[in-house]
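Hey team,

Filing this mostly as a record. A colleague (T.K.) asked me to run one chain through the structure pipeline before their review meeting, and I want the input and output archived in the tracker in case anyone asks later how it was produced. No errors, nothing strange. Just documentation.

Input sequence:
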Amino acid sequence: MLSKDQDFRRFWAGHTVSAVGTQVTAVALPLTAALTLDAGAVGVSAIATATYLPSAALPLLVGHWLEGRRKRGVMVAADVVRALALVVVPVAWALDGLSLPLLVAVGFLVGAASVVFDIASFAYLPDFVDEQDLPAANRALQGSATAAQVGGPGLSGLLVQLFGPALALVVDACSYLASALGVASARRPELRAAVAEERPSLWEGVRQIKVSPFLRGLTAHAALYNASAQILVVNLVVMAVKERGLSAGGYGLALSAGGAGAFVGAMLGLRLAKRLGYGRAFGASLILSTGLPLLLALLPGHGILYGVLLGAVQFGSGIGLGSANVLSVTIRQLLIPRSTLARSNGAYRTFTFGVLPIGAALGGVLGASFGTTAAVAVGSAGIALSSLPMMAREIRTLQTPVPTAA
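Output structure:
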């Protein structure tokens, strides 16, 4: 049982600390630019773009490179790189050498190392725990990730308030070193994957997605969801704070409600799958995660009332999203042959994360051209449409994932 598996508990602790560190970085790095360098929207956007860029350019190559290699050491190295990159910021600040280009470079390095860590972790877990424990392991990891989404931004704000934005990144760097220690402390030997006599091509991961109806539908769904969510988020903050009179703190609390809902959903997803089967459980989760956001552009009220309604919608859709995330990861790890897990996850991330900067840019154009309310409606509609690829009969009737590709 996982509750008695000391190796998994160490790995889980390291993974959890890493997830918290990622959330803190996402807030503290832009705040460093805004508060220390007095950077405007363009400067903050440059850091965000640099952090997202590796998700568009690297996953396919990283997945191909990782296949057949031991993953634990790679994850430890990725954590160390993230820690060292972040330490550069307070050192440069102390030496009066902090600049926007430096923060952009740090954002890129942290983003690139995060891509490597996430792809390696996805491929490592099925070999690290027994197959019957894999769903529960994913539930634990997803639960801690969603808890990090709830507490990470608030922790980051507290650190910035106590120590200043640059010094707050020292604490963040320590979190990545703690993650490296947790991952490295697992005692169970890691098996090296068998290497084929003829190394598969770079596009083998894409082929694995292509041959499985569920993986094709899931990739199309996630790509459209992520792009549409960026359109929504870019405009929702402006609509809520500037047009509906919601305070910045109230907006943060509303978003935290979404993270709290995702935690609940992560705990319920596997129970739903046992009762309905994986396909129907995923469909039920999508009713909440892709249907409820349609209400966002229609919510009435102003100030606190609007914030309460926004938080309620975020909480409900978060339940569906948390459940869908646990099912998504588990299904992919069970459907994809072990020998191509890293390569296939690299291809999956290329399609589903590579759209993030596109969605963010499109959100800005739509908001400037038609207004934020209309842009929120467009983003919400895109999220709803993203559920359609998952409604095919062969997907809805999936009971238990079984590998479909050799």
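Quick notes for T.K.: The chain has two domains: 2-183, 204-396. The chain has a mean pLDDT of 80.
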